[in-house]
Specification:
The complex is a heterotrimer of chains A (about 800), B (about 300) and C (about 150). Chain A is α+β, with helices and mostly antiparallel strands. Chain A has 18 helices and 33 strands. Classes of the chains: A alpha+beta (about 800), B alpha+beta (about 300), C alpha+beta (about 150). The structure holds flavin-adenine dinucleotide and FE2/S2 (inorganic) cluster (2 copies). One FE2/S2 (inorganic) cluster binds next to loops of chain C.
Chain lengths: ~800, ~300, ~150
Amino acid sequence: MIGVREKYEGNGAYGPLTRKEDARFIRGRGTYVDDIKLPGMLHAAILRSPLAHARIVSVDASAARAHPRVEAVITGADLAERGLAWMPTLSADVQAVLATDKVRFQGQEIAFVVAHDSYAARDAIELIAVEYDPLPPVSDATTALDAAAPLVRDDVPGKLDNRVFDWTAGDKAATDEVFAGADVVVGCDMVYPRSHPAPLETCGIIADFDAVRGKLTLWSTSQAPHAHRTIYATLTGLPEHKIRIVSPDLGGGFGNKVPIYPGYLCAIVASMATGKPVKWMEDRSENLMSGSFARDYHMHGEIAASAAGKILGLRASVLADHGAFNATAQPTKFPAGFFHIFTGSYDLRAAFCEVTGVYTNKAPGGVAYSCSFRVTEAVYLVERLVDVLARRLGVDPAELRMRNLLRPEQFPYTCPTGWQYDSGDYPRALRLAMDMAGYAELRREQADRRARGDYMGIGLSFFTEGVGAGPRSHMDILGLAMADGADLRVHPTGKAVLAISVQTQGQGHETTFAQLVAGELGLSPDEVEVVHGDTDQTPFGLGTYGSRSTPVSGAAAVMAARKVRDRARIVAAAMLEVAPDDLEWAEGTWRVRGDPEKALGIGEIAMAAHSSIELPAGVEGHLDASAVYNPPNLTFPFGAYICVTDVDPDTGEVAVRRFVAVDDCGVRINPMIVEGQVHRGLADGIGMALMQAIVFDEAGNCLGGSFMDYLLPTAKECPSYELGATVTPSPHHPVGAKGVGESATVGSPPAVVNSVVDALAPLGVVHADMPLTPASVWRAIQGRPLRPDLAVE
Amino acid sequence: MTGGSDEWWEGNAAVQVPAQVEYEKATSVEHALTLLTRYGPESRILAGGHSLIPMMKLRLAQPEMLIDINGLTELCYITLAGNQLRIGALTRHAQLLDSAVVGQYFAILHDAERVIADPIVRNWGTVGGSLCQADPSEDLSAAFAALKGTMVIQGPGGAREVAAREFHTGPYQTVVRPAEILIEVRLPIRAGGGSSYRKVARRAGDWPVGAVGAAVWLERDVVADVGIGLTALGARNFAAAEAEDYLRGRPATADNLDRAGQIAAENCRPVADQRGPADYKRHLARVLTARVLSEALSRAGG
Amino acid sequence: MKLTVTVNGTDHTREVEPRLLLIHFLRDGLGLTGSHWGCDTSNCGACVVWLDETPVKSCTVLAAMADGHRVRTVEGLADGGRLDPVQEGFTQCHGLQCGFCTPGMMLTARWLLDHNPSPSEAEVREAISGQICRCTGYENIVRSVLWASRNGG
Ligand SMILES: Cc1cc2nc3c(=O)[nH]c(=O)nc-3n(C[C@H](O)[C@H](O)[C@H](O)COP(=O)(O)OP(=O)(O)OC[C@H]3O[C@@H](n4cnc5c(N)ncnc54)[C@H](O)[C@@H]3O)c2cc1C
Ligand code: FES
Ligand code: FES
């Protein structure tokens, strides 16, 4: 890694420590939900609709019920009797658990079969006879608001069209004025295709209801176990303290494991009905066809600038395809997530965006997939527009960005749509990326190659994210504010156990959080055990997504540790017979000012705190502490990416040759883990840009229902990444850290697309939509682009 | 696996485990034939299973009896016999790729094997299974069509030989009868030959959007004979016969190769799918044909 | 049907349905949950184990086909208490995040190094190209295998 040295060097606990969790995983001893086998456990499978839109005439499950290995079959009618046929979504819409009236997307849940083994359950779903009355579907979002469009949500009283919401941000009048006075205005239509986070482990649950104790235990692939518990309590009527959710090792999440899926609720009902534990694990096709999708934004963007290349304003209008139910996961106030951070990293005068959400006969979900609540779409929009502008002005895209980036002295900076960026040194990051890439040399090479008829592209992107949701005054999900707790216990021998509300899906919380606490208490990370993923053992919080673990829960852990440290100071003062004010915290000990010999570590102090030592009034002993962290603001990580591609215009094949990524996520607690997060996001960007898309045909068939059709990048499409770092601490986070989990997923797709479009510039290509498959690249060159959201004609 | 169509889901319940089936291990080719005869048309040979088992998981295939031939090591070989290379039907993709003698005579097969599926699938999928699956996207079918190989099919009454280009009778259909087994592929070795295969895929390990293989035999600078195979591009018998006819007897100039590509493109009937629209595939037929011909020529070396 | 499979050196005899996939035999039948399942279409490689001497996708092989054969899983990678260099490499180089792809990746890496003790970066990428990792972007998996190659093979 190249870049600025770590700021908080004095803190010995930070650094590229190998991970604590690895020991079990490399031995095959992780415990994922599907690894858990409870005595008497039953296995479930779901019958799904083959049609995108149809009225259900009848569901006959009698043959399935008669199958010798089947224990129960639950249909929509059965759920309706219990008032559970519908459930609320994370966006306060409702979603069918098992369809009763009609099916609204291909893959929708119709019946839930519970059998003694998973093979029999799957055999039995074939025995269920469903009679459908097919309806015309709407799978093309651009026609969803046509008067003739089929009505998706006839279940909503009075609903006469497919509109979910209209939403705007920014100052329209001011923006129009800026545009009217600008020398240059360029625009571009672009689609951010529907994709899917596709963690390698699909979603699943084991529901185990103990009727005697009245307690429901759920082993669940959940990124947000506490929020889920509250929702289940509300839904089922079970008291919340009688629900325990264990989210064991998760095989990735990336947003896919934030929502509550119908299968979860069915498993609970089935366990209550049969009195036995019930396991339901998605197949991959179920995961891709019915689980939470991401993106699906049809965007028109415009950028205004002076002739000298000063960016003045931005406008965007967006059609957001939300599928059949509005189940997006985002803070309640923001139906388009944080899309209005679309002014990006640039100093401009005015901006305005309008977003219209529509229902279609496609799977519900939305937001999910490492997108920082739609910052992904926003960054893509502005970074593509800046490149289009650079082309129009005849200015190098790096130069245009450099001219317009926010300057360090502008921070904290309030952008035209109201976000307050906490800190940044943007030009420094871009310069570093350009130095690492050898930017000038690359441009020379490109010119040489062009002269020889080779098509090489150099693409840049500069992103700013807002992560770590969020301030409770204006960020909540279903009324639950986005603050997180941490409980820290310090045992008599000075070993600590930290319980956190967030849930690792591979991010290495067991290591990073141990480092955070160790850093505050002068312990070794080995002396801190991190407990997470069990609602009976951890404090409330909203979970891990939106890169919020370190910014929110990490801060809570630090605040709890600082409370411990303050308490330890009082105890140490009593032990050393001095006043607390005479002590200073140095080298992981409380020591007497001016007398470094007299120092006590947390271990000695903890023992004393548990002993009969006399403590000042008001101090009860022990060192344990809790904290709840309500972030004052989001943190704003940023970065500069450069992608080099080689394109064969005859076949349309694209090869990513190099990827330089400079990230600034503030202070890096474990730089090795941070880099791992960036690597992942870069692969995501390559995947999104080149191959990942969930496409539908006119009949509403999902054409991305398997890994054969929904392509994910392999090691061969990914180059060896070149990473760099700058460190601009967050001024409001207790250790100066910002989130990083989604940075590269957000920042890298435009760099790849910009690179491919740059390669094709001599052929007159100004824009091409993702995914840039060989066919779509070739068609873009022919001037007859393929639609990325609909089946190939 | 159904490489040619990505709409396998349509109308199918996603059932991701096979239906009930009987299973028996064949101990010899004769035994396998006996079992096939005994259990009739609902029985299936199970070779690598890398096409059959995925289809069974989706219940697109529901055989009643599987006859596992993986124990028949006698079908697992690559040997030189006079002016022929003989490949046993149970030879794994990986073995073909690792074989020096294959590389020496038929570079096209190494080119193709490098891009068939992925290394793990290649460890287990077989040459015979590939051919018998008869997926229009199967790479080896086109490669063998280009090489003008011969398939040896064994039945209860003995063995028969069928030209590679007569082996497939349509998508997922071959001349192998229910009680027969493909046991060998024979490839003629002729002097002055060179060959090559190129595939365009959306990603490593994906089935081809389109692929072309060619073998050329030169006499001085004239194309004495040529074979061109097209994969996933809607060519009859996986071959571009019209383009071959054009090129045969003509000098191997760049213009002639381009023209051959054009003819190949004009005579194939690709269908649109998520891998690409028909016009693009047709364009690929043209570009790739010219490219593999040129590379095959550069390898021909007299 | 009755079958006997030698898994990590131990014989296991079980009565199974012929349709049972090897991955489910290992996970549900023998409780060896280190091998994972990640897709329906033989694309992801989370299920890779060795059948005799070669890595295979155990979701695409019937347990019946392993009858009379040897299977090696992640649980059989370490030599008693001693970790395989590949396991060490994955730890040292942060070659895993969620750990779901890791067993399959390590088994392929072990096979590669047995046949090619000093692979190039490109050879490592080729070897694991039939296996999906959603977490690491592959960078550190490649480094892990190269680390193992330099440290004891
Ligand atoms: C993920 C994945 C990607 C793939 N990508 C590609 C690709 O890019 N290109 C490509 O060409 N292939 C690809 N394949 C297919 C692969 O090459 C298969 O291994 C091959 O198609 C079938 O070989 P098999 O031995 O597994 O056949 P099986 O699945 O065992 O058999 C296939 C069919 O042939 C019959 N059969 C098999 N052997 C005989 C015989 N000797 N006589 C008579 N009938 C027989 C069977 O009964 C069955 O109907 C891919 C497969 C997978 C799983
Ligand atoms: S489970 Fe995906 S390849 Fe086996
Ligand atoms: S580490 Fe999560 S899939 Fe590879």
